[in-house]
Amino acid sequence: MSLLLDDVTLTYPDGDGRLTALDAVTLEVPAGVLTAVVGPSGSGKSSLLAVAATLVTPDRGRVVVAGTDTGSLDQAGRAALRREKIGIVFQQPNLLASLTAVEQLQVMAHLSGAQPKAVRERAMALLDAVGLAGQAGRRPHQLSGGQRQRINIARALMNEPAVLLVDEPTSALDHERGAAVVELLATLTEERGTATVLVTHDRTHLARTDRTVVVQDGRVSEQALA
Ligand SMILES: Nc1ncnc2c1ncn2[C@@H]1O[C@H](COP(=O)(O)OP(=O)(O)OP(=O)(O)O)[C@@H](O)[C@H]1O
C-alpha cells in the first residue's frame, strides 16, 4: 500500500464556525494503480490532494505515505518525506524560463545533493520515457504546452516517488494532447509502480485510469469503471 487516507476529516475556518472540506474520507491507493478523482467544483478534490501531499494537516484521521504514518512526523520530517516519497504535478508546469528541459529535471536532484553525472543520466532517461529525449536542450518557450506538461511530470518523478499526485494536468491542453498526457501517466504508473492520484474535470479521460473516485460535499464514493 503506497497511500492511505484513513477516516480523514479536514475543516477550514468559516466565519464563526468551520467548513468541512473532507468528511471522514477513507481512500487506499495501491502501488501501480492510477486513481482518478472527480467531483464538482468545491467538492474537496484539491483538499484531498493537499492532505495526501502532507501540505495540510487534517483535523482527524491518518495519512500514511509509503508505510509512514505522517501524523508522527514534525514539519521537517514531513518535508523530507515529501522530497523522498511524493511527486506533485500542478496544473501549470511552472518551469524555470532560463533552464533547458534536462536542467529542469537536474535541478531537483541537485537540491538533494546527488552525484551530477548520475543525475544527468536519470534526467535523460526520464525525458526519454516521456518522449522528449530529442528536446533536452530546449527552453520552455521553445516547447509546446503538452511538452511542458510532460517535463513537469518527468520532473516529479526525478526522486522516484512512491506516490504521485497530479492536479488537473490537462486543463491547459486541447483534448488530444490532454488524452496523451493521461495515457503517459497510465504508462508511467504501471512501469514505475507509483500510487498515482489524478484529479480531473474531464470524464473522457476516465477510460484510461484504473479506478474512479467521486468526491461530493467532502465525501468519497467509488464509481464503477465507465
Ligand atoms: N484555505 C481555505 N480556507 C477556507 N475554505 C477553503 C479553503 N480551501 C478550500 N476551501 C473550501 O473547502 C471546500 C473544498 O474546496 P476544494 O478546493 O478542496 O474543492 P475542489 O473540489 O478542489 O474545487 P475546484 O474543482 O473548484 O478546484 C470548498 O467549499 C472551498 O470553498
From the N-terminal CA to the C-terminal CA, the straight-line distance is 24 Å
Query: SSE order, as H and E?
Result: EEEHEEHEHHHEHEEE
In CATH, the topology is named Rossmann fold
**What ligand molecules are bound, each kind once?**
adenosine-5'-triphosphate
Backbone structural class: alpha/beta
User: What percent of residues adopt helix (DSSP H or I)?
Assistant: 25-40%
Estimate what percentage of residues fall within beta strands: 25-35%
Enumerate the spans where pLDDT stays under 50 for 5 or more consecutive residues: none
Task: Round the mean pLDDT to the nearest integer and report it.
Answer: 92
Radius of gyration: 17 Å
Count of helical stretches? 6
User: What's the structural domain tally?
Assistant: 1
The global form is: globular
CATH class: Alpha Beta
Second CATH tier, the architecture: 3-Layer(aba) Sandwich
Per DSSP E runs of 2 or more residues, the count of β-strands stands at 10
The named CATH superfamily = P-loop containing nucleotide triphosphate hydrolases
> What does the largest sheet look like?
6 strands, mixed
Give an overview of the whole structure:
With 226 residues, the chain is an alpha/beta fold. The chain has a single domain (3-223), classed as P-loop containing nucleotide triphosphate hydrolases (Rossmann fold). It has six helices and ten strands, in the order E-E-E-H-E-E-H-E-H-H-H-E-H-E-E-E. Strands 6-7-8-3-9-10 form a six-stranded mixed sheet, sandwiched between helices. Strand 7, helix 6 (175-192) and strand 8 form a beta-alpha-beta unit. Helix 3 packs across helix 4 and helix 4 crosses helix 5. The longest helix is centred in the last third of the chain and has 18 residues, at 175-192. The site of adenosine-5'-triphosphate (ATP) has 11 residues, from strand 2 and helix 1.
